[in-house]
Design a protein that fits this description.
Elements: H1 2-19, H2 25-69, H3 72-83
Length: about 120
Amino acid sequence: MGRNNFWRTVGIILLVLVLFGVVSVGDILGVVAKFIMTIIFLLLAIWAVFAFRIYRAKRNMEQRSREYNGGGFSHRYQSRSQSRSSREGDVTLQQTSQGKKSRVNQKVGDYVDFEDVK
């Protein structure tokens, strides 16, 4: 009820102001248009900032990936595909480098026998 009374009161006040010529309908529409344009401008500005932040985060992640992987996935894939002399669709196996040998001491990991005491 309170909300309907508010808008009814605003409507009556605007009608009285228009009838007395203090405010024209064009002025009211102009204010509404400026309000809508302000909202649209703010939404576009927020969207632009958000898009720029996403682009910057993507670029930073790609750069970190390149630094970590030594060129990134796409760089390694392109160099392999360009140097390949076989036909498209052929399956080739490439041996990868052997993993590091473990540096665990020989004494580590031995089993110890024990008895439960009752």
